[in-house]
Amino acid sequence: MIAAAFILIALLTATDQVIKYAVVKNIALGEVINLIKIGDTQVLNLTHIRNTGAAWSIMQGKSWFLIGLPIVVLLVGSAFLVYKRKSLKKFEVITIAMIISGGIGNLIDRIRLKEVVDFISFKLINFPVFNFADICVVAGEILLVVYIFFFDKDTPEKSAQPAVKNDNDTDKNE
Fold first, then answer.
1. Is 134 annotated in the active site?
2. Out of 16, 109, 134, 167, which one is annotated catalytic?
3. How many CB atoms lie within 10 A of CB 143?
4. Per-residue confidence of the chain (174 residues) as pLDDT tens digits?
5. Which phi and psi (to 5°) does residue 110 adopt?
6. 109 is an active site residue
7. Which of 40, 109, 118, 171 is catalytic?
């Protein structure tokens, strides 16, 4: 299972980098290509931009943090996968691999280009332009949290349940 996790990380990271390469080579910086439009309302665009910060361009100029954090996530996530490899469910492995791969994809951009290539622009709401790596991180985090809270059967809730009373036990107050 651990080998599959690292293969998935490599595949998702490679997918992110191939898509970003295609965007850089085929869409001019600042160019907008409308993909979905309903009436006069733009819904989804390809918009080639570069971001030196995080979402909504926050933390611009904090490259030490934006490089350091994914490295920490990569190391902690990988160690967790290796250390817990026998007890992790497939779904947990997939979500952790998604988070790690997204972090690596944007980390590669930050180190190589000093900025991140973003290109997906969802126009129905005021949302920042994002990329495939961002989707991996956010989807992985959401799916992992939902799994932990709603589907994981190894939660502390089990130990919080009252003990089953043995038929041989008698209550001394009766």
1. yes
2. 134
3. 16
4. 889 999 999 999 999 999 999 999 999 999 999 999 999 889 999 999 999 888 767 778 778 888 998 899 899 999 999 998 888 899 999 999 999 999 999 999 999 999 999 999 999 888 899 999 999 999 999 999 999 998 887 655 544 555 555 555 555 555
5. -60, -40
6. no
7. 118
